């Protein structure tokens, strides 16, 4: 997955400025940065929930030019390759956990319902929620809901799963159960792109870190380099030290 | 007094079964369909010629919400027969009283209910649209399978309100010569000089009809809310 020269403005605010970055497959890329830095917009652009005004986007064999009109076929193709997990889960409240998971496979991929159901149970088992298949989202804890959302995106067999602050709405102990699922996925070489505030988790899971500030990429490199740079680069240093106070939470996986 | 009731109640109920209930049911069904179409047109993002279609629907909603129902009934039943366009329409547009009633009540209900449905659709969180489109669902699929079912739950109480209003508003059909319940009670009151008893009696019959609808509403609310945790809404 590659982005080249991405630009996006909201009014006079340049949210993304000439973003060029490579997001490798079978790896875990963590995008960090202060609030309002444009990191969520960047992530949402990968699923075409946001449309930058210009720039090139390449994912697998698809090439998107944001300065041209994007056809609905292209949109669908990109969305099949990129699953999205939202901060506030966005499960469908009128559907059971199982129905949430099979909705995409049956309606979009036109899979056979029985086959989709069978696979949905396997995915729910994987995120530890097989027994909640017939529950409604409203009967789940936040951590459970987010794990269902991860199962829902996995059911589409996307090449990349994009996670937008997946644990920011969760209490620490619920956060841990979601992070464990993500760590398992990372170990299985599922390509993940995660926007998070949790630097401890980033350090533990990321093979690559992208640091975004004011719509620009300030750092793009390995996790090791990023944390080593905290002395050398004042912006990274400031960011890490501001996060370290708010970022320490009980139950957060640490090295 | 018992004699008056046993004499008039069967006639009122018979008018209810023949006119009030069919008027209300048919007009509500057509009105709902019209309301859904109107709401969907008005929330559509389509441009081009479609903007004109949107304008027409907006005009329709404005027109029927800004004029009295009884005046609308009079225009459709008494007025339209005088509508002539030389060469095209020479003899005006004539409807039977019942059809004129159905048309007017449907259009009126449709205008109000379309606003209810439109508001219900917009009250479904944007995240639902995003989640559905992120898994590749089209706008149509998202509406049908994700947004409308949730909007329906939200719109049950206000739509039930519209239905109850419609049942009572059918009494205005008396003014275009439909012999519905209120008209029957007026006729009997004119014979027996018992307006208090007659109008109280017909009021009670309306109240019973509407109470049945309220029971139906409660059932529908329970059914559409069953996926929600019981603690919600406290």
From TrEMBL, chain A:
Molecular functions (GO terms): ABC-type amino acid transporter activity; ATP binding; ATP hydrolysis activity
SUPFAM superfamilies in alphabetical order: P-loop containing nucleoside triphosphate hydrolases (SSF52540)
Predominant place of localization: membrane
Gene3D superfamilies registered for this protein in UniProt: P-loop containing nucleotide triphosphate hydrolases
Record carries keyword Ligase: no
Pfam family, one: ABC_tran
Name listed for the protein in its UniProt record: Polar amino acid ABC transporter ATPase
GO cellular component, one term: plasma membrane
Alphabetical UniProt keywords: ATP-binding, Cell membrane, Membrane, Nucleotide-binding, Transport
Residue ranges occupied by any ABC transporter domain in the UniProt entry: 1-239
Keyword Membrane set for record: yes
Subcellular location: Cell membrane
InterPro entries the record matches: AAA+_ATPase (IPR003593), ABC_ATPase_HisP-typ (IPR030679), ABC_transporter-like_ATP-bd (IPR003439), ABC_transporter-like_CS (IPR017871), MetN_ABC_transporter-like (IPR050086), P-loop_NTPase (IPR027417)
Record lineage: Bacteria, Bacillati, Bacillota, Bacilli, Lactobacillales
UniProt organism field: Ligilactobacillus pobuzihii
Automatic annotation (TrEMBL), chain B:
Subcellular locations according to the entry: Cell membrane
CDD domains recorded: TM_PBP2
Membrane topology: Multi-pass membrane protein
Residue ranges of every copy of the ABC transmembrane type-1 domain listed in the record: 17-214
Segments crossing the lipid bilayer: 20-41, 62-83, 196-216
Cellular-component GO terms for this entry: ATP-binding cassette (ABC) transporter complex
Record's keyword annotation contains Zinc: no
GO molecular function (one): transmembrane transporter activity
Biological process terms in GO annotation: amino acid transport
Alphabetized UniProt keyword annotations: Amino-acid transport, Cell membrane, Membrane, Transmembrane, Transmembrane helix, Transport
Organism superkingdom: Bacteria
Family: Belongs to the binding-protein-dependent transport system permease family.
NCBIfam families according to UniProt: HEQRo_perm_3TM
PANTHER family per the UniProt record, alphabetical: L-CYSTINE TRANSPORT SYSTEM PERMEASE PROTEIN TCYL, MEMBRANE COMPONENT OF AMINO ACID ABC TRANSPORTER
Record-given protein name: ABC amino acid transporter permease
Organism (species): Ligilactobacillus pobuzihii
